[in-house]
């Protein structure tokens, strides 16, 4: 540290964590703000520093750009030295680090690691620690997404709050369950309106599900029903024994549905009818789009939403929920992704072949996949209980994911007969895309495939597709606006696609 901070006169402590109660209850890593403050005070006592101010931002997440009031106050006060439990408690990204640096604040962790910018080497180390923390956060997010997808695929309910009428395991809760079934029958027969349901439930003392977690100051629910909340509730596929993940429906296992599929679908038809405008036409907007939550913002990693310039039925685009981040016009983007996807699938040698005993083989593979997941999850539970090293668990996770990817590749091959119609060669040479494959691909067969199946194929090939904000006045460009993050199978097919172009075309097409 510099001379001003070797014997600082103005010393502060800063602590931050997201949702203390949730982390403590779940046993996740990370110290509570109280423990962070105690550790920082203990360090100050060890090195004879007098703390004049303590700044605490509690329940402030690191993954969303939520303002940290105490962090902002600390930057304005600009103490000479700030003690933190760890550098990532002080800054959430390199932008925060820049603000700390330009405020003139020096830092130190409760373990004695300096956060200084006096020399080029010290600044480099601070930036490296920040970059590594961001990288670890992204790796953790990827692991969570993989686990969520596995849970959805295996029929595990992903919600953390008990749904109205049922337990988290799908068992019925009375008298709520009977109230749901009665209301569903009345809605399907048009005897009741959604407002009528809300009134009946409120009069019976039935409240919306309480989402407040034990020990947390946050939460919502436990309120009276409205027509809107009733309509939202009856749109949840879990009522018929399914759950949605990334736009795909997965059947819940060991779940007792409250409604039959026929009754649930009848209510959805009613909801759709009531969305029609005065001319009797339903909005063009669809509930599931090709790339929803498959494309993500390259700047922050958040899943892109669909919007319409001028309302439903007008120009569609994908945009990051964070203001000022990526926005890409949907039609050319979906076309480019579709052409590239078909080009990749065309490299799958047996995709168009119909193998013998495909049903039996697929059943065997599916059982193998389910057994593999169950055994791995049991192993992880034992490993965590025995306090096995995180590095060993991470290595096992990698091997497990590789085995699953291999099985998924075999399942894709067995499903080839269902996808063979997507391969149609076109004589139209007007397509535009990353390489010349775009000029020889007819999308009509692909577009005839139901959107859920197209999404499944995309998720087999890509972990995500990053979108980058276009420069003002620039048209969509696949090279400039998209970055494909492949699965293991997608990377293999991508490499095969490159090899095919190396054999068939001049090497300049790949530059």
Architecture overview:
The protein has 19 helices and 13 strands. It has helices at residues 3-6, 20-26, 33-46, 69-77, 87-90, 94-102, 120-153, 176-188, 194-203, 227-233, 261-274, 330-345, 358-385, 390-414, 416-419, 444-448, 451-461, 478-481, 488-504, and strands spanning 11-17, 51-58, 81-84, 106-109, 114-115, 242-245, 248-251, 295-297, 305-309, 315-319, 327-329, 462-467, 482-486. The strands form four sheets. It has a five-stranded mixed beta sheet, with helices on both faces. A three-stranded mixed beta sheet has the order 8-12-13. The chain has a three-stranded antiparallel beta sheet with strand order 9-10-11. α8 (176-188) packs across α11, α9 (194-203) packs across α10 (227-233) and α13 (358-385) packs antiparallel against α14 (390-414). The chain starts with a helix and ends in a 7-residue tail after the last helix.
What share of the residues lie within helices? 40-55%
Could you tell me the strand content as a percent range?
A: 5-15%
Instruction: Please give the number of β-strands.
Output: 13
Within the largest sheet, what's the order of strands? 2-1-3-4-5
Q: Uncertain regions: pLDDT < 50 for 5+ in a row?
A: 20-29, 213-219, 282-287, 351-357, 425-435, 506-511
What summary fits the major beta sheet?
Answer: 5 strands, mixed
Global Rg: 27 Å
Number of DSSP helical runs: 19
Structural class: alpha/beta
End-to-end gap: 48 Å
Mean pLDDT: 78
Shape: globular
Q: Any key phrases for this structure?
A:
12% strand; alpha/beta; disordered C terminus; five-stranded mixed beta sheet; 511 residues; 46% helix
């Amino acid at each position: 540290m510099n001379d001003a901070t070797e014997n600082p006169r103005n010393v502060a402590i800063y602590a931050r964590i997201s949702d203390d109660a949730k982390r403590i209850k779940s046993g996740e890593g990370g110290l509570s703000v109280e423990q962070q403050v105690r550790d920082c005070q203990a360090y100050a006592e060890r090195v004879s520093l007098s703390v004049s101010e303590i700044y605490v931002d509690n329940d402030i997440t690191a993954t969303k750009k939520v303002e940290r009031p105490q962090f902002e106050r600390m930057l304005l006060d600009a103490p000479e030295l700030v003690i933190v439990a760890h550098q990532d408690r002080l800054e959430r990204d390199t932008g925060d680090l820049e603000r700390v640096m330009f405020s003139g604040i020096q830092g130190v962790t409760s373990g004695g690691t300096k956060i200084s910018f006096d020399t080029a080497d010290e600044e480099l180390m601070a930036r490296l620690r920040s970059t590594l923390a961001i990288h670890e956060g992204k790796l953790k997010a990827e692991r969570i997404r993989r686990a969520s997808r596995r849970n959805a695929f295996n029929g595990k309910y992903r919600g953390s709050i008990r749904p109205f009428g049922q337990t988290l395991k799908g068992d019925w809760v009375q008298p709520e369950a009977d109230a749901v079934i009665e209301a569903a029958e009345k809605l399907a027969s048009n005897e009741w309106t959604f407002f009528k349901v809300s009134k009946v439930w409120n009069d019976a003392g039935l409240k919306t599900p309480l989402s407040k977690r034990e020990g947390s100051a946050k939460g919502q629910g436990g309120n009276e029903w409205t027509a809107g909340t009733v309509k939202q509730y009856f749109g949840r596929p879990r009522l018929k024994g399914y759950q949605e993940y990334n736009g795909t429906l997965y059947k819940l296992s060991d779940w007792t549905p409250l409604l039959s599929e026929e009754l649930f679908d009848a209510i959805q038809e009613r909801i759709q009818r009531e969305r029609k405008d005065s001319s009797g036409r339903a909005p063009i907007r669809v509930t599931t789009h090709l790339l929803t939550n498959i494309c993500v913002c390259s700047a922050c990693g958040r899943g892109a939403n669909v919007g319409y310039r001028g309302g439903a039925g007008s120009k569609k685009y994908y945009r990051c929920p964070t203001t000022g981040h990526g926005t890409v016009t949907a039609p050319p983007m979906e076309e480019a992704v579709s052409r590239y996807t078909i080009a990749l699938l065309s490299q799958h040698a047996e995709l168009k072949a119909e193998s013998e005993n495909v049903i039996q083989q697929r059943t065997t593979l599916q059982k193998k996949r389910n057994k593999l997941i169950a055994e791995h999850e049991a192993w992880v539970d034992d490993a965590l209980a025995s306090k096995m090293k995180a590095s060993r668990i991470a290595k096992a996770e990698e091997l497990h994911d590789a085995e699953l990817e291999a099985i998924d590749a075999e399942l894709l091959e067995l499903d080839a007969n269902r996808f063979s119609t997507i391969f149609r060669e076109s004589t139209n040479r007007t397509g535009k895309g990353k390489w010349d494959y775009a000029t020889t691909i007819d999308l009509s067969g692909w577009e005839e495939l139901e959107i859920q199946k197209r999404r499944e194929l995309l998720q087999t090939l890509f972990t995500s597709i990053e979108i980058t904000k276009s420069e003002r006045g620039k048209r969509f460009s696949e090279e400039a606006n998209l970055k494909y993050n492949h699965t293991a199978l997608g990377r293999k097919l991508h490499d095969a696609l490159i090899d095919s172009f190396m054999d068939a075309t001049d090497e300049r097409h790949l530059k």
